[in-house]
Amino acid sequence: MGSKYPKSLRIFLPLWVLMLEIAFILVFFFFASYETISKKSEFLKTYHAFQDINVMAVLGLGFLKASLRRYTWSSVAFNLFNLALGVQWAIILDGFLFSSSGKITVNIQRIILGAMSAMSVLISSGATLGKVNLIQLIVMTLLEVTAFLGTKNVSWVELQGNEHQSMMQIHLFGACFGVTTAWCLPGRRLNAAKEKERGTTTSSLFTTLGTLFLWVFWPTFNSALLEYPSEKETAVYNTYYALTVSAVVAMSFSAATHSHGKISMTHVHRATLAAGVAVGVATNLIHSPWIAMVLGLLAGMISIAGAKYLLVMVQQVIGIRLDAHGRSCLKPQCECICSVPFRAGFQILYSAGSLCLFMAMGLVGGMLTGLILSLNLWKAPHEGKYFDDQVFWEVSPSMNLT
Amino acid sequence: MRFKFPFVAICLQLSMIILFGLFVGYENKWQYYAIPYESWVFFISLLWDIGNIHVMTFLGFGFLMTFLKKYGFSSVGINLLIAALGLQWGTLIRGILHHRQKFYIGIKNMINADFSTATVLISFGAVLGKISPVQMLIMTTLEIPVFAANEYLVGEILKATDIGASMTIHAFGAYFGLAVAGVLYRPGLRRRRHDNEKSVYHSDLFAMIGTLFLWMFWPSFNSAVADTGDHQYRAIVNTYFSLAACVLTAFAFSSLVEQRGKLDMVHIQNATLAGGVAVGTCADMAIQPYGAMVIGSIAGIVSVLGFKFLTPIFAIKLRIHDTCGIHNLHGLPAVVGSIASIVAVALGVADKTTMAKQAAALGTSLGMAIVGGLLTGLILKIPIWGQPPDQNCYDDSVYWEVQYTCFVHLKARILSKSCAVM
């Protein structure tokens, strides 16, 4: 057993990061160029989505993870770091995997795709929150983005999915990946860190801030990759109405399942977003608002039930913390398949196939990544120092961390 | 609370889904491939607006009300709850009122639904901390029909202009909320200032997040339903200048009326937004930037003075206790705004409306708000909705699972130890 003091990352971290960044710059220097925009409207069409998705990734997912009372700085800042790294890597991979010329042409659509792929890492880092250092996060980002883009490519070629459908599997993929990674990390039964895992009212309000950002911009996320305006429009409406229903349902069911009828803020954080995930794949195929609303209702209910009963059990057995998406998305994804036949019965097999593919790849990829991360190379923080900002940040002694 | 609140909320939600199934469909005018460039721009700009307005309703209004030290969860959470319900109910009521049969919604309907939600959130500010979530749900269901009727009257029958909805949203919401608060007045809460009705350092900072989001996106709010082109452009510019001027006068007067020239955070959180409210009615008229700045400055001054002098009078003499001071942020500036629109008509910069129409619009908005608010207040006063007793007001732990930090346990342990020693 090593020393209880965290190992210094002074040389190790800057070396890794600088080397990576120099490599990225070299690749961009030799292979990347800007696309010349033919029409101004092309730019206008996508810029709006680009902005909203960045707000979701940086502010939304960042603050969503700020729920641990001694880990808020790392949650928000490491999230930004992951995104910055993930986007660059995703653009490089995407350029080489999906273009024949061997050149990367950078346009807004490609950056949106990159940011959305990097969001898979931001989702799964919720499961490993507080247990890994920056170097492990770098490794995890590189591996996960590669795995996600590879899976997406396979699902295109084999299952004829389109961009939108495969991107909407990101929640499932990220959740599976994160859960298995966290499962492989040391320290599954944490007792010393229990105290630090609790939230406070302030950190809970910060999480609410993140939730609301995600809530408000989710329709853009669900509609960004659709091609035709009428599809986009339908997707936006369906997502909005499903989200409104799940917000109401989340609160009422949270109160109904508590012994004194009190609402739990953690349930609100998770279940209000469940509907956005649930309508994701089929959102352009639903042609009446009430169907989307029923989906939202079911998603909210299942999410609360899952958070309340199922996951307490899972948590006790396996001893891992699950991320919001992990909690809310596994079940609603199943509903997605059920909702597809409303318009396109024959697609159900493909959907089921791609669902299984993403889930399996997530689980296997997460397992491998977890094993790599638990090697002794990365100067990982000691178990007793989990969930603590002090390991990574300069904290002035006068600052009251509670 | 355990059964009453989920029962009411789920019943409302189920009836909403059934009504949507019966009455609402999507309009999809555009064919899949060829659509003209102009429609694209129009659609995208509306999509942008609706995102901004959602940020205002959910983040802006929600966090603006988190200033109470123990009431942050309820402010944001109940705000989300009633906004989510209000969006659906607002879409439905407005559609039925205008079409009277099955109707098809587009993106404009969603913006209008957002507006009806904003009205309820404004009224929520007056009763914040004093009523239960069930009462809040009832109030939402009752307020939105009255709002829609008033909006229909002002827009379709009187044909007054109210582009940023100073009168139909802000004045209506504020006076409705005040009327409800007046009926629900509880002397026990005023005898001495309630312990929890205070802010702490970080809760004021959270409220400031709300203020800043509202401030940034207010131009979208005032210009969302304006005609594209000149009118929309003027609405954005006027709102922006009015807000900017309002910030300066709010700071100046806050320093002037407080002791030793210090600033009061309450004024900064609220009065800096009064300019956006006041310029609403004449936002799309050709009032020139200086006109907007004059309106904004006056609104800032009125709002700060209202907080300082009018709120205590309201609470003590008129027996209306207004938790967030919505009368000063929304009520008074909206009245200023409608007077400004009458002046603008008199100066001949408005082409669509007359002085009489504007005055009538103000009158109907106030009248309907107060009558509707009094009736709603009476319904809410029936003692079956689980209104919290006086000592539990302004406290999250009544409705929320709150994890207090370890201090509480520590304190308890120290107390028990010292008892043992004694």
Automatic annotation (TrEMBL), chain A:
GO terms for cellular component: plasma membrane. It comes from the Eukaryota. Residues 19-310 form the Ammonium transporter AmtB-like domain. Gene3D superfamilies: Ammonium transporter AmtB like domains (1.10.3430.10). GO terms for molecular function: ammonium channel activity. The chain crosses the membrane at residues 12-34, 46-64, 76-98, 104-125, 132-150, 170-187, 199-218, 238-256, 268-286, 292-311, 355-378. It is found in: Membrane. GO terms for biological process: ammonium homeostasis. Keywords: Membrane, Transmembrane, Transmembrane helix. It holds the Pfam family Ammonium_transp. It is a multi-pass membrane protein. Belongs to the ammonium transporter (TC 2.A.49) family. Rh subfamily. This is Ammonium transporter AmtB-like domain-containing protein. The gene is RHCE.
TrEMBL record, chain B:
It comes from Vombatus ursinus (Common wombat). The gene is RHAG. The keyword Lipid biosynthesis does not apply. InterPro entries: Ammonium/urea_transptr (IPR029020), NH4_transpt_AmtB-like_dom (IPR024041), RhesusRHD (IPR002229). It comes from the Eukaryota. It catalyses: CO2(out) = CO2(in); methylamine(out) = methylamine(in); NH4(+)(in) = NH4(+)(out). GO terms for molecular function: ammonium channel activity; ankyrin binding; carbon dioxide transmembrane transporter activity; leak channel activity; methylammonium transmembrane transporter activity. The keyword Transmembrane applies. It is found in: Membrane. The chain crosses the membrane at residues 6-28, 40-64, 76-97, 109-129, 163-185, 205-221, 233-256, 293-316, 328-347, 359-380. Homodimer. Heterotrimer; a RHCE monomer interacts with a RHAG homodimer. Component of the ankyrin-1 complex in the erythrocyte, composed of ANK1, RHCE, RHAG, SLC4A1, EPB42, GYPA, GYPB and AQP1. Interacts with GYPB (via the N-terminal); this interaction bridges the (RHAG)2(RHCE) heterotrimer with the SLC4A1 Band 3 I dimer complexed with GYPA. SUPFAM superfamilies: Ammonium transporter. Belongs to the ammonium transporter (TC 2.A.49) family. Rh subfamily. Residues 53-399 form the Ammonium transporter AmtB-like domain. This is Ammonium transporter Rh type A. One of its GO terms (cellular component) is ankyrin-1 complex. PANTHER family: AMMONIUM TRANSPORTER, AMMONIUM TRANSPORTER RH TYPE A. Keywords: Ammonia transport, Glycoprotein, Membrane, Transmembrane, Transmembrane helix, Transport. GO terms for biological process: ammonium homeostasis; intracellular monoatomic ion homeostasis. It is a multi-pass membrane protein. The lineage of its organism: Eukaryota, Metazoa, Chordata, Craniata, Vertebrata.
